[in-house]
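ok so for the tutorial part 2 we go from a plain amino acid sequence to predicted structure tokens. step 1 is just haveing the sequence, like this:
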Amino acid sequence: MSQVSSNIIQPTTSSASTAANSLKGGGLNDIDLNEFLKLMLVELQNQDPLNPTDNAALLQQVGELRGISSNDQLVSTLKGFSNTQELTTASSLIGKTVKGLDVAAKEVSGEVTSVSIKIDEKDRNKRQVQVHVGDQIVDIKNVREIEDKVIPPAAT
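step 2 — the prediction. this is what the tokens look like for a chain of 156 residues:
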């Protein structure tokens, strides 16, 4: 059970405690939709029955909940578009000569032979599009120059 004192809710359940603890670090910027919902439910369950939450305050919280949800969806959609755009750009470099920095921050120059995607082991949503120049790997963000192969016109 939670205790209410001086309008501060002190949840004792593990899920509510986890959600409340996440607020200590970075404020509401670091809270996700589920944590916000848990906090709101704990607040409603433990409100003072003689002085319940004002309807306007409750509507404001619901509006904030919708805002968080919309922002999460927008960020997810934009990340998907960004990954797709990077992959399309990298694919268009196959057969072209590029200059850039490899994963060891060394200068690389040569023809792109293939494209790969490196997926972060800790966060599967983080991806890096990479082009392969010979046996070296260049992150698409580290490509500095692109040269198109010019094919001389056939002699007539």
